[in-house]
Amino acid sequence: MIYSKRIIFSLFVIGLVGIAACAPLSSTSQPPATLYPVAASNLQIVTGQTIYVPAYSSIFYGSATQTMDLSVTLAIHNTDTNLPIIIQSVTYHDTDGALVREYIDSPVEVPPLATTGFVVEDSDQSGGWGANFIVIWGAEQPVYEPIIEAIMVSTRGNQGISFISPGRVVSQTAADAGE
Fold first, then answer.
1. Which one has a higher pLDDT value, 174 or 105?
2. pTM above 0.85, yes or no
3. Into which CATH architecture does domain 36-169 fall?
């Protein structure tokens, strides 16, 4: 009899843990790091890049008619330990390449080792399955290149998917070698 009570109690505890594990994740989210405006007229950019970042607000599975909607986070990590970088432009484009939105109106600074980001919610399908970001960054002194990537995530019921899409340099501004 003692063993059956222990078994029942153990099953009860396991059941509670299982129910708690199935609870949806909190929908509250941390906003991206504070963006610090920079006066564009005072900038003297010596190095920088234009980065293309593939983003997928939905993906196909099973067939060309079945899709799973994904949330997309564009993360911009300043990897330099001493110097800020300046984000000059962040634009989001749809599958056909058309501009969907601009995320910043004027240049912003990302402090050393800081990260900022921009989110496309899973309900926003304006970019389509082949969306992308174009990020233009620069610095007033030579710096280590930032890491810029898109993180796609979806959870529905007991299914989940997540993956990262790294940015690719499509053009570069570099300080003259003679400086």
1. 105
2. no
3. Sandwich (2.60)
